[in-house]
Amino acid sequence: MDKLVTLTFQKAGMLTTVQDKGRFGYQAYGVPVGGAMDQLAAQTANQLVGNAEAMPVLEITLLGPTIHFNQAIQIAITGADLSPTLNRTPISSYQSITIKADDILSFGRIVNGCRAYLAIRGTWQIPQWLNSYSAVHPNKEVLPNSIIKKGSQLQVLTSPLTQEIKLSPPIPSTSLTPIPIRVIAGPEFKQFTTFQIAHFFSHTYTIANNSNRMGYRLQGMPLSLETSSSMISSGIIPGTVQINNAGLPIVLMRDAQTVGGYPRIANVVVEDINRLAQLKPQEQVRFVYHS
Amino acid sequence: MENETTDTKTIRFHQFGEQAILINFEQRIEEPINLQVTLLDTAIHAANIPAIQYTIPAYCSLTVGYDPTLLDYKTLCLLISNLTISSKENSVQNPTRQLSIPVCYDQEFALDLEQVAKEKEITTKKVIQYHYQPIYKVFMLGFLPGFTFMGKILESISCKRKKEPRLKVPALSVGIAGEQTGIYPTESPGGWQILGRTPIPIFDATKEQPFLFQAGHKVKFYPISKKEFVMIQKDIESNSFNWQEIYG
User: Fold this and answer.
1) Which residues of B touch A258 (CB under 8 A)?
2) Domain coverage including residue B73
3) Could you tell me the mean pLDDT of each successive run of 10 residues in chain B, 248 residues long?
4) What is the pTM of this model?
């Protein structure tokens, strides 16, 4: 028998949002793609609880929420290791976990990564906008419940548990530094000189503090540009690396606007957009040409 | 680095990441070039290719997002380049319809009107007149969901963005920047010079089609008084507004 389970957020966490695969088809109107920053981790979380791919997950950023469950339900956490605990006892990520009535899920120290994903088995009782559950950037008021606040409640219509699965978590990319990010040539790649290209691939960049779901700003040695680098505005997709007027790269992420006027030197390969999503401000990256 | 294939005379295909194609037209902001973008975009939508997830028509480029597990880059380029030929003759739907949009240039809404008049050394009345005189083309949407980039505005009122962008531009403000004019669909930070406000909601999230404009539309502004502004606003709130007036 299906039953309705209520989650109550006693703490919201730093930025906890409902995300899914993204909102496709409305980019012509300026709607960002959105969706989970680390698509792979989000997808894995849903698989662990036997949910369909299109089901939403909670994207938990650095400081996690505290969640009360009023009834038994199955969950899974993937992505960043933010020291999840159930009733203050540590639990593992990358496995299905059965929650009992009145259990409290909370998070602690950041062990690795930036964004954890919480999948909850069942059908989430929340509305969609333009065929997606994802929080709407920048129109927060469109799906207000997709941004978790203290006291928020979320209802999930859940079915009996599926078989519990345990996976081995992926090796965090922070074992290497600077972290290599693979890119392919972007539309304006050829407008850069050999010297500028060499500079781009040989320097280490630091992720700036004001990086977010819209984009990662990178700090480091700027490219020397002879002229202002702006061009006629054109489409932007997640993973696009632009070079701004200061000669520094910006990697556009899932909530980026759909058009922009800086030359697109490169595009991060899909797999590495997910890896980049797990990097925090002040971590270091370098770009690697992917052929 | 085989990321570029050249098609016919005027358009170029570029691989754009692993899940998109960028189609570049002649790189100039001109109505006929933008029309080619609109026509190709319309043809792509009409062809209903399941692998295509979205498109982003811009001034002189078209981005096509696709699912590479369904179709590879080369096949999709070929499919699209075959469409380009037919798009010229084909007038599917009507992507170039004209909309009439009332704008109130009253002091209360025209936050930068005086400043623009001063900078261009003309009267505020002239600025208003020059603004509503032309028929504009919606070159593209972007920046915010539903924000329109329309042009081109007359040289006599063309001016730069504000040095210090406003933290809050009221929703439905009508502004200018460079050769462009546009409407803020929602309250937002922004640097355009604000000349007035429209009572017409150009973005309504509760509607199945939340956006009034699409790239390719033509727009004619007409001036209204504060009194008319309030009346239209009331009609819209009470659902008695005749939307045909806009499409007329």
Assistant:
1) 56, 141-142
2) 3-89
3) 44 96 96 94 94 98 98 96 65 72 98 97 98 97 96 96 94 97 96 97 96 96 98 96 87
4) 0.94
